[in-house]
Amino acid sequence: MTQADREKIAEEIDAASNDIASESDAQPSSTLIDTLSGQQKVAALLVALGKPAAARLLKHFTPDDLRHLSGQAHSLPNISLADFEILVRQFEDAFAEGASFSEAGLRFDNLVQETLPEDEAALIFDPSKAPKPPVESLWNIITKANIDVTQMNLVQEHPQVISYIISRLPSETAAKILMAQSATVRADLTRRRLHLRNVAPEMETILDQALRPLFLQENRAGEQAHHGQVAIILNELDKTDVDEMLASLQDLEPEDLKKIKEKLFVFDDIPRLTERARLLLFDGIAADAIITALQGADDLMKELILASLSQRTRRMVETELSSENQSIQQSDILNARRIIAQTAIKLSEQGTIDLLGQEGKS
């Protein structure tokens, strides 16, 4: 409470007390008032003033002030008129007929409830009832997310899950997610969308709990998010372009440049991963994406990736690669390679692998 508020309260008490006549000039001998705390005395005076005068005073108190006064009002002992005269004199006012203080706590509660708006009064007695900000829906969060971030977060989800997510999003966002997939995956997601069934609320809750932290982590990452955003842009470029960009950024602070490089990874960087990291990476990549990404790749890249696959998956990929598929578009190849690179980045952020070729955690 400011000094101006204190002076205003003093003026209000003076004005209110002038309207109340004094019945006795006797000097009571009681010392009960001397045992009261300052806040108890204020609470007693507010109750005695009544609603009209008290209403003018309460607006000068903060919610914390009123919570403290409410507690003090509930702890007030019975105050006789004689004792109250002493209290009034201490404030240099004259009160005669005061209210009974046998239920001072209840009267103070009623006073607050009658003089303040309902929502403000509720907060005085129970701060936990403060209105909570509405929780933004997962679908709104995904809609506002960068499409690359969305793709990176969804890349390891089952196609049925991705299909359901697409069904809950605005058509423009759904289209962007579809176009970020390979042609094969797009067709699969579209078929699943046509025959999608209702999802139980419990399952939607589980999905929300799994995906919400992924999409919100950029907001919590602070400075890290800025380095990550720069890295996301650079990861869209060809390897040669990335190298040229890094050369032009040499005047950055060494720590900033280091943080950006830690998040840089494109398909052509796969050879720098350790064997263990490649095994962990391709364990979560769909065979269709691997087949598409390897179209036009050099022999070294093909051998490194094939050596990272299970025997069953390797045979499937080798069979498909042996028969030339003219229907695969260059855009599909780039999308598939981007999916693999984004998965590697995600595993790195989880601490599973190290993009710089060092052993990560399992």
TrEMBL record:
SUPFAM superfamilies reported for this sequence: FliG (SSF48029)
GO term, biological process aspect, one: bacterial-type flagellum-dependent cell motility
UniProt KW Transferase keyword: no
Main location: other
Keywords noted in UniProt: Bacterial flagellum, Cell membrane, Chemotaxis, Flagellar rotation, Membrane
Intracellular or extracellular location(s): Bacterial flagellum basal body; Cell membrane
Residue ranges occupied by any Flagellar motor switch protein FliG C-terminal domain in the UniProt entry: 248-355
Domain Flagellar motor switch protein FliG N-terminal: 36-126
One MF annotation (Gene Ontology) recorded for this entry: cytoskeletal motor activity
GO CC annotation, single: plasma membrane
InterPro entries attached to this UniProt entry: Flg_Motor_Flig, Flg_Motor_Flig_C, FliG_a-hlx, FliG_M, FliG_N
Residue intervals of the Flagellar motor switch protein FliG middle domain: 154-215
Entry membrane topology: Peripheral membrane protein
Function according to Swiss-Prot or TrEMBL: FliG is one of three proteins (FliG, FliN, FliM) that forms the rotor-mounted switch complex (C ring), located at the base of the basal body. This complex interacts with the CheY and CheZ chemotaxis proteins, in addition to contacting components of the motor that determine the direction of flagellar rotation.
Family designation: Belongs to the FliG family.
Name of the molecule in the record: Flagellar motor switch protein FliG
Provenance organism: Bartonella bacilliformis Ver097
